[in-house]
User: What shape does this take?
Amino acid sequence: MKSLHLALNTKVLDNQRGNIISFNNTQLNTAEITNDSGQKRSI
Assistant: This one.
């Protein structure tokens, strides 16, 4: 069984768009993007 280990609430800066991508390790198949206007969406 493969396992994916992510730190809780890891934040990654997407330099191309200036978005913050947050990974929540309770849902390994989802990530949340927050843009400069504070809008959030899941990917």
Notes: The CA atoms of residues 2 and 28 lie 13 Å apart. The chain has a mean pLDDT of 63.
